[in-house]
Amino acid sequence: MSDLRSLHSLFENSPLSSCLSPDVEIDVSGITDDSRQVEPGFIFVAVPGVNVDGHCYIDSAIQAGAIAIVGERPPDQLTLPEAIPYIQVPDSREALGWLHAGWYHYPSDALVLVGVTGTDGKTTTTNLIYAMLSAAGLKAGMMSTVNAKIGSQSYDTGLHTTTPPSSDIQRYLAKMVEAGTSHAVLETTSHGLAQRRLAGCHFDVAVVTNVTHEHLDFHGSWDAYIRAKARLFENVADLEAGRSKLRKVQPTAVLNGDDPRSLNHLSSIQGARQIVYALDSGDSQVYARNIQFGSDGLRFRLVTPRGEVDIASSLVGLYNVSNILAAASAAEALGLSLSSIAEGTAQVHAIPGRMERIDEGQDFLAVVDFAHTPNALRRALEAARMMVDRTGNVIAVFGSAGLRDREKRYLMGEAAGGLADLIVVTAEDPRTEPLERIMEEVSRGLRAVSREEGRDFWRVPDRGQAIRRAVELARKGDIVLAFGKGHEQSMCFGEIEYPWDDRQALRLALQGSTLATLPTSSSSGCTA
Fold first, then answer.
1. DSSP tally for the chain: helices H, then strands E
2. Residue numbers of the domain that contains 368
3. Inter-residue contact 225 to 190 (CB < 8 Å)
4. 174, 238, 252, 388 - which has most CB atoms within 10 Å?
5. Which residues, given as ranges, of the chain have pLDDT below 70?
6. What is the distance between the alpha carbons of residues 156 and 88, in angstroms, rounded to a whole number?
7. What is the pLDDT, as a whole number, of residue 248?
């Protein structure tokens, strides 16, 4: 942020406009919620967090050169210089999003914007919609937890990634507008929605893949989790919210008919057209007929309100049929042709870290997949079972994250124990939790389905050694799958992110070596 914006220009076209006094006339040079990043001429947004309250850093921000403060606390609870304007807002996080949108001249208003949310399948569905738009000859952009695509450029969106911060979202959208993009697809996580990082974005189409057991450590309950997802659909439904752009498509909610809990909750949000997809017809408008699986992927007949078309994809598993149906429903909402849907689907071959095959000439399959929830693990193992013959073993390597939803550890062990032949339990971002405790909670789920340690499953704390152990267990015709990290490029031990890549670890294991770049102490969740 190098040029200047008037404070009023940042507020006037947003729900925050009434919060700013008309007497305040200043130009600002940037916006941040981190007092350490404040430069002279910046607005500092004081965001209350779980462990840190930004209001406590207002003095530091002013000393660093902040010329205006935005916060939630009443001004009489703060000690502020008279010369520094203080703008009280109902929600600082939401204000931060709107301010960044205003800084970049509300770029979503110039785009047909599609948001994809859900527990599993968001990245794949986002990529599929992007490919369908491109196959239709439209200039499209995409932002996922793996990367952002703008024109011919691809931008890394982070190491451990969720929805990027609002500053990055608006910057990427502005780049898309500058590049002449007409349509954009955004993967929208529950964290990003709950933390208002998408404030200032106006969505035309909202898509949900499913809502299953995940992130309850953050949201507190399933109801709070689904309410976070619902924000995307409320955004589409509320045509009068903020700046009401001239919409080029009818606002549409795309819902999963095979996921009753999300369907029941999200279908109650009125104000947008609804398209329901499902594996079978039932009450859905978009569905599949004659699903077939083979060594080269899957095929089925796609049925939509505007006709039918044959779909062929190199993706695997029944869950990817659902992802394709979700993307096709979004394409239906956007008015794309059936041929563009089929062509776009065929163009999506390998998504980084999603059932990504690693080939070093071995006589068995080796795969890296991001599955890190009970449902995703179950569905990926079901797909793996279809990829091997009757005599082939399915060998799974996985862990469960520290300081996250503890209930899912048992459920993941139970899922793996019911579907995999051999299992290696290992580390997956233990953070500051004892790794032994995490692995024991996973092991309880394995033992609950009569799996025996030392015969059916093993605990190997070091992830590199665990992946090599799984490779050593494999025989001709088997499949080895490393779950949980996918495309991610780091793993957290203690409070430090260490470089890590499951794909590199699996490749080295297949070569007879081990990727050993992680701390090995597990007594305290590992320290640096």
1. 16, 25
2. 356-510
3. yes
4. 252
5. 1-2, 157-162, 213-222, 239-247, 517-528
6. 35
7. 74
